[in-house]
Amino acid sequence: MPFQASILRPSQMAYLLPQSIPALCDSTSKNCFVPFSNLISKLNAASDSPPVTCIISDASQKFGLPNVLFWTHSACAFMCFTQCKNLMQRGLTPLKDAKYLTNGHLETIIDWILGMKNLSLRDLPGIYHTTDPNDKLLESVVEQIEAASRASAILLPTFDAWRLMC
Length: 166
Prior knowledge:
This protein has six helices and four strands. It is mostly helical and 166 residues long. The chain has two domains: 10-70, no CATH class; 75-149, no CATH class.
């Protein structure tokens, strides 16, 4: 079967392009499904192309298709993001206040992330250094990792081969 890639053009999504990453995450989760659904319907209705059989997106399950997630951050960052909810439940993030940036809290050892050793909270992605208890990026990461857990496959950029971890 031939491969066809389609995208939503920026002009179709201009209202979704806020100026900050947290606002973009929030806007995408709230506003992308309708234009995306319209694109899938248009592709499936086209007589000159085969129907959509796979979507590299967390929205594919809504169409009954295999869910292949393309994670653009590094494999190491993905592993760190899988711990977002855990870090929040342990009270390690968000930080209680700005003093936690300098009082030694960021030196807290994080020794439970699969495949990663000798890490401290300081070594994890910067979103974990927020003091905002309602941080939209943290909320978005939790949602994205939950979506990733339902994926049929995850594409990760990495230099080394990974063993199958099922």
